[in-house]
Amino acid sequence: MGFVTIDKQKQKERKGSERVNDWNEYKLPFPEQELKDQAARCMDCGTPYCQMGVEINRSTSGCPLYNLIPEWNDLVYRGLWQEAYQRLIKTNNFPEFTSKACPAPCEGSCTAGLVSDPVSIKSIEKAIIDKAFDEGWVKPEPPLRRTGKHVAVIGSGPAGLAAADQLNKIGHSVTVYERDDRIGGLLMYGIPNMKIEKYAVERRVKLLQAEGIQFKTNVNVGKDVTMEELHQTFDAVVLATGAGKHRELSIEGRQLKGIHPAMSYLTASTKHLLDPSFTLDDDLNAKGKNVIVIGGGDTGADCVATALRQGCTSVVQFGKHGELPKERATSNPWPENPRIFSLDYAYEEAKEVLGRDPREYYVATNAFIGNEDGHVVSLTTDTFKQGEKSEMRTWDADLVLIAIGFEGVEDAVFEDMGVEKLGGTIKADNKTYQTSTDGVFACGDARRGASLIVWAIQEGRKAACAVDLYLDKKLAASGH
Ligand SMILES: Cc1cc2nc3c(=O)[nH]c(=O)nc-3n(C[C@H](O)[C@H](O)[C@H](O)COP(=O)(O)OP(=O)(O)OC[C@H]3O[C@@H](n4cnc5c(N)ncnc54)[C@H](O)[C@@H]3O)c2cc1C
Ligand code: SF4
Prior knowledge:
The structure is a single chain. The chain has helices spanning 2-5, 16-19, 32-40, 69-77, 81-91, 95-101, 105-108, 121-134, 158-170, 198-210, 227-233, 262-274, 298-310, 345-354, 411-417, 445-448, 453-477, and strands at residues 54-56, 59-61, 150-154, 173-177, 214-216, 236-239, 245-246, 259-261, 290-294, 314-318, 359-360, 363-370, 376-383, 391-396, 399-402, 406-408, 421-422, 425-426, 440-442. By secondary structure, it is an alpha/beta fold. It has 3 domains: 2-134, Alpha-helical ferredoxin (Fumarate Reductase Iron-sulfur Protein, Chain B, domain 2, Orthogonal Bundle), CATH 1.10.1060.10; 150-245 and 408-477, FAD/NAD(P)-binding domain; 248-404, FAD/NAD(P)-binding domain, CATH 3.50.50. Strands 5-4-3-6-19 form a 5-stranded parallel sheet, sandwiched between helices. It has a 5-stranded parallel sheet with strand order 8-15-9-10-11. Helix 9 links the parallel strand 3 and strand 4 (173-177). Helix 4 packs antiparallel against helix 5 (81-91), helix 9 (158-170) runs parallel beside helix 17 (453-477) and helix 12 packs across helix 13 (298-310). The longest helix has 25 residues, at 453-477. It is globular and about 70 Å long. The N and C termini lie far apart (55 Å). The mean pLDDT is 96. Bound molecules: flavin-adenine dinucleotide (FAD) and iron/sulfur cluster. The site of iron/sulfur cluster has 13 residues, from helix 7 and helix 8. Iron/sulfur cluster (SF4) binds next to helix 7 and helix 8. Pathway: Amino-acid biosynthesis. Pfam families: Fer4_20 (PF14691), Pyr_redox_2 (PF07992). Keywords: Amino-acid biosynthesis, Glutamate biosynthesis, Oxidoreductase. GO terms for molecular function: iron-sulfur cluster binding; oxidoreductase activity, acting on the CH-NH2 group of donors, NAD or NADP as acceptor. Residues 150-313, 385-460 form the FAD/NAD(P)-binding domain.
């Protein structure tokens, strides 16, 4: 019943105006005693909605990994950190990623949140995994025996890595193919360094390698290796190729220089950060520029934070919806994920550095305007204020980033892998994860559409289970 007497503490962060001068993570560790107090706020309510992991009204409620939250809260409160770590990894392959970047739908459905602030679940998860790494409890644990079965995983984002980890633990021999030069999918190129420092991805990849998983980078499956070749070598194939086909904004002037999809911008920024010999194209550098981000979501927020670190002159982010309410609306009751106003890290930084929240609401972009060199210089918008006449505005823009979401899986995946489509994603059963091709499975964003790390890990785990069952049946059918 600690929540009655102890207030929720927010994870401390470095000051916005200070952290925009580097690319390091912006969250600070919780002092151990404070953290134990926070864990004591959990009432062990008996029906832990925090770990239910379901979708209500198209939003996630509770942890999709069914993390055993009240159990590790109690263990942390009692100072039994190693036991807490053991509980945590029963359900979550990569707590070091979720505890840094998960939007924590667990907290939105925490029972304490009905009458008080929810338990600081994500901060507790972070403290457990950070301590486990610091204390050397996270060690490679290769399987004791090999099954003789071989599985190829295409794509090395959280879904592919979770599937590979689970299959390898069972004893199957796993090879992960990645077309990029580094492993990690959007954990590496997509989510910026200040949210997930890339050492954390590389550290996990080294552990998985030491456990026997093989990684092949710079291999574009479908082009460099065909699916036919994979079928000859492997007993099963898991497609975890993500949903990287971005939405386009086909309006007047789109062909002008200086207008880029958000992902090209974010990827170039991280590549340059990790390898300064990788030249950052001047057109993808926000330094000294007026930046406009089109799209009000999290990818747009990451663009804002990146532009601030590159030294932009100004940054504005357009969203087509209105500002969220400060409190839950009656149409958004607990345990639904709360749709309420918050000042994300990027907006806090923009407020401190440039003096204003960069978000503009109810904005629709009409056209881009260029100069004689064919470079964007401004754009025009219609601004719809509810109940008011629309207002036409012109904005200075030297760099425009389009962050209006993802349509689904890239066309090449359907052309090269011979699997059927369902909407924009790979058609695969939500229990067997089996695609339209025998022995080929799909998981993560490639199957469910652009989503979250926590869902990608869940899908990778479940797809691995399905592959294992499939291999068992194959083994039984062959009389072994
Ligand atoms: C900018 C941005 C920020 C985000 N921030 C967050 C966040 O803070 N929190 C959160 O929970 N989620 C966040 N997300 C969403 C999250 O990153 C994704 O839901 C998650 O990474 C999906 O995992 P995945 O493994 O399915 O696919 P991905 O991570 O997309 O990985 C797919 C991989 O497959 C590879 N691939 C594709 N085709 C081939 C091929 N033919 N051959 C070989 N390799 C191939 C790709 O190169 C890629 O590496 C963010 C997404 C973006 C775009
Ligand atoms: S993975 Fe996300 S939803 Fe699950 S406990 Fe951690 S922060 Fe909460």
